[in-house]
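Protein modeling request. Please complete all fields; requests missing the sequence field cannot be processed.
Requester role: graduate student
Desired output: 3D structure, token encoding
Chains: 1
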Amino acid sequence: MAKQIEYNDPPVDMLALGKRMLVGAWIGFILIALFLLSVRNPDPAWGEQWWVRPLAVVTFAGAMGGLCNYFILYYARILNINRSFAILFSLLVYIIGYYLGSVLGLVGTLWH
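Delivered output (112 residues):
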């Protein structure tokens, strides 16, 4: 007879999840805002509000990076994976997500 494994996963801490998403969103917002502030003469073909899309998309990408960070560390703790490895993997996922969010947000303006 096969041995039954019982999982007792702790519930998701919504407050901690929200904090990580907010931190990720703020990091993304600040980085893209600093980048957009360096643009002195935007192309008139972009329109007046060209900067709204990059700010929104990259901020959302940062928030999703915070969500990934929470769940990577959450499951690393459950599966007994080394915490430092999980943090490095989470950082890599955040950087890739931030890059993809930047490309998606800047396409048609600063990203040709």
